[in-house]
Specification:
With 155 residues, the protein is of the alpha+beta class. It folds into two domains: 2-62; 74-138, Potassium Channel Kv1.1, Chain A, CATH 3.30.710. It is built from five helices and six strands. Helix 3 crosses helix 4 (103-110). The model is unreliable at 148-155 (pLDDT under 50).
Length: 155
C-alpha cells in the first residue's frame, strides 16, 4: 500500500512564537525523521511549554481497496435482468429494484429511452468502485465510510 500525504507541522512555544513546516512523503516516515529539537531550540523556544499541531492531508492512496460487501458479478445472472457496465466492470442487477430506488435509473430503464430495451447498458463518467459502493447501499449493505464521495447529483 502506498499513501501520498502532505504533513503540516505547527509548533507553538510559550511566547506564541510559531514555526510551521510542510512536508510531503511517498514512503513511511516518522515525526522523528521530520522534526529536530534543535530546530525549536534555535528559535529560542522553551521545550517544557510547547504545543505541536499536525495536519495530515491524504493526497492519494494506492493498493488499498475496500472489501466488497455484495457481489454483482456473473454469479448474480440468474436473479438479474440487466447488466450495467461501468469502466469495463459488469454489474448484474435488477432493473425494477433499482428503478424503485433511483429516479435517474427509473428514467433510464422505464422512460422510453433506447437503453430501456437493452440487456446491457454502459454508464460513463462513473468510477466502478464508487458505483459498487452505491449499489451496495441501495441493496441494503452498510457500505459508506468516511472515504465515500457522492458522485451522482441526479441520484
Amino acid at each position: 500500500m502506498s499513501i501520498e500525504t502532505e504533513l503540516k507541522f505547527r509548533l507553538i512555544g510559550y511566547n506564541n512564537i510559531t514555526k510551521t513546516m510542510k512536508h510531503g512523503y511517498l514512503r513511511k516516515k516518522t515525526i522523528d525523521d521530520t522534526l529536530e529539537l534543535e530546530d525549536i531550540e534555535d528559535e529560542g523556544q522553551v521545550l517544557d511549554n510547547l504545543t505541536l499541531e499536525v495536519e495530515v492531508e491524504i493526497i492519494k492512496m494506492t493498493g488499498s481497496k475496500k472489501e466488497k460487501m455484495r457481489t454483482f458479478d456473473e454469479s448474480q445472472k440468474d436473479v438479474s435482468d440487466v447488466v450495467l457496465v461501468v469502466q469495463d466492470t459488469q454489474f448484474y442487477v435488477s432493473e425494477m429494484y433499482l428503478a424503485s430506488q433511483s429516479t435517474y435509473l427509473k428514467t433510464l430503464f422505464l422512460g422510453g429511452f433506447s437503453e430501456s430495451k437493452k440487456s446491457e447498458i454502459a454508464l460513463t463518467g462513473i468510477d466502478a468502485d464508487e458505483f459498487q459502493h452505491f449499489l451496495e447501499v441501495l441493496y441494503g449493505e452498510f457500505s459508506i465510510d468516511g472515504d465515500f464521495e457522492i458522485f451522482f447529483d441526479d441520484f
